[in-house]
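Q: How would the structure tokens look for this protein?
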Amino acid sequence: MSIREEMREFSRRGPIVDRIGLSATYALILLAVPTFGVAAVIGLASVLWGSEPEDELGRNHRIYQKRTLLVALGAIIVGALSIIVNVGVFVLFVGLVWTLVRGMRGLKALQHGQLVANPKGWL
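A: Here is the predicted structure in token form.
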């Protein structure tokens, strides 16, 4: 690939700085389980209070990350409260799997420079 083609590809994908920040947030989503949610709280803070990306790819992934983290937080709260009636463990497990799948799917799309098809959807 020539330098011109590489520059066109680079400009199509968007600034590298935005991609690094978005990738770091996906890493925090994926590290939520082994860190008992601490990484997810940091990721949620970066999504809610961080600067909004300027390009379409960045905005699309930011919406996807925000939705993923907020729904995961809701699943944790519902799961913790419903442990008393023996449903909470199931809710927490489903929320865990759902969060990990969305994190991996979003990271893969970002690494390929693709938009998430429906960032506000459930899957």
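Residues 56-81 form the longest helix (26 residues).

The chain is about 70% helix and 0% strand.

Upvote if useful.
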